[in-house]
Amino acid sequence: MPCQDQAPIPEELQEQLNLLENSQGLIRTILLGIALQYKALDVQKCLLLNSAQRPQGSPPDACPDPKSIQIAASLIVLCALFGFQKQADTIACQTAQAGGCPDWTEPKLNATVILVALLRLCRLAASPAGEADADSAPEPDRFREENEELELLGEPAI
């Protein structure tokens, strides 16, 4: 809680503080996405150990779908990336309105990162459906498909 005795903060300084606080919030959002990605790796380990330890034909243990967790993590990180994009665009526009020469490099780089994250999300969402299809496949094919899916899911989300 701010002290009553402090002098009012100039508007420009307050705007800069708000920008920094917004950036911290966006970084917290990215950390949440990373934590979900970490959880997805734990679930993958669980699934891998369960498939190696359970007898043939026994039902799999209940584990959440790591692909769903990774998709959620990617969406959360994308929200933060869009927030940073909005910040960069706002700063460049304010610089242009003030008569300065804005540097559009940051917004362009942010847009590139967003594009890569969207491509990664689409690739993840378009990957094979997983264990239900793999159980009906012949034994060597099932392991090959499981390994391909685990490799895809093991790629870090942006």
Structural summary, described in words:
This protein is mainly alpha-helical and 158 residues long. 75% of the residues lie in helices and 0% in strands. The chain has five helices and no strands. The protein has helices at residues 11-53, 66-97, 105-126, 131-136, 139-154. Helix 1 (11-53) runs antiparallel to helix 2 (66-97) and helix 2 packs antiparallel against helix 3 (105-126). It starts with 10 loop residues before the first helix and ends with a helix.
How are the SSEs ordered, and which strands pair?
Elements: H1 11-53, H2 66-97, H3 105-126, H4 131-136, H5 139-154
Question: What is the N-to-C order of secondary-structure elements (H for helix, E for strand)?
Answer: HHHHH
**Biggest β-sheet strands, sense, barrel:** none
Q: Mean of the pLDDT scores?
A: 83
Gap from first CA to last CA: 35 Å
Q: What Rg is obtained from the alpha carbons, in whole angstroms?
A: 23 Å
